Amino acid sequence: MGKTIIVTGASRGIGREIAKRLAADGFSIVVNFAGNAAKAAEVVTEIESAGGTALALKADVANEKEVEQLFEQTAAQFGSDTLHAVVHSAGIMTLSKIVDGNVAEFDKIIATNLRGAFLVLGQAARHVAEGGRILALSTSVIGVALPGYGPYIASKAGVEGLVRVLANELRGRNVCVNAVAPGPIATELFLNGKTSEQIGHLAKMAPLERLGKPVDIAGVVAFLIGPDGGWINGQVVRANGGFV
Question: Which of 51, 55, 64, 217 is the most exposed place for a label (fewest CB within 10 A)?
Answer without folding.
Answer: 51
